Amino acid sequence: MATKEQQDIDPFTAMESLRTALAGVGIVLPSLGVDVASPRLRLVDLGRVRADVATRLADALRKGGQE
Questions:
Q1: What's the CA gap between 12 and 27, in Å, rounded?
Q2: What is the pLDDT of residues 12-50, one digit of tens each?
Q3: pLDDT of residue 65
Q4: Is 29 helix (H, G, I), strand (E, B) or coil?
Q5: Rg, C-alpha atoms of the chain
Q6: What are 45's strand-pairing partners?
Q7: Which residue among 28, 35, 54, 66 has its CA within the 20 to 30 Å range from the CA of 60?
Q8: Distance from C-alpha of 22 to C-alpha of 41, rounded to nearest angstrom
Q9: Comparing C-alpha atoms, which of 61, 57, 63 is closest to residue 26?
Q10: Measured between alpha carbons, how far is residue 56 from residues 16, 40, 59, 61 in Å?
Q11: CB neighbour list of residue 10: distance below 8 Å, 6 or more residues apart
Q12: What pTM does this model have?
């Protein structure tokens, strides 16, 4: 069951926030979007990425986004 805090977060806002943060470290997830088929779940779909992008994303997370 989702918490009240999870229910209050707009998935479109969350998606744009993630897109901006990723762009800040030079990462683009082309398929990033909101799963409109499940509106009650408020899912953000990260989509599919190439292996090199997944590696860069993992590196950015390990570094805490600091480059």
A1: 19
A2: 999 999 999 999 999 999 999 999 998 889 999 999 999
A3: 54
A4: coil
A5: 13
A6: 33
A7: 35
A8: 23
A9: 57
A10: 19, 32, 5, 9
A11: 42
A12: 0.80
Give the integer Cα–Cα distance in Å for 32 and 67.
Answer: 23
- Residue 16 tokens read as 């744009």
Q: What are phi and psi of 19, to 5 degrees?
A: -60, -45
In this structure, are strands 44-45 and 33-34 parallel, antiparallel, or unpaired?
antiparallel
Rounded to whole angstroms, the Cα distance separating 37 from 8 reads: 18
Rounded distance, CA 38 to CA 43, Å? 7
Q: For 9-50, where are the alpha helices, taking DSSP H only?
A: 11-24
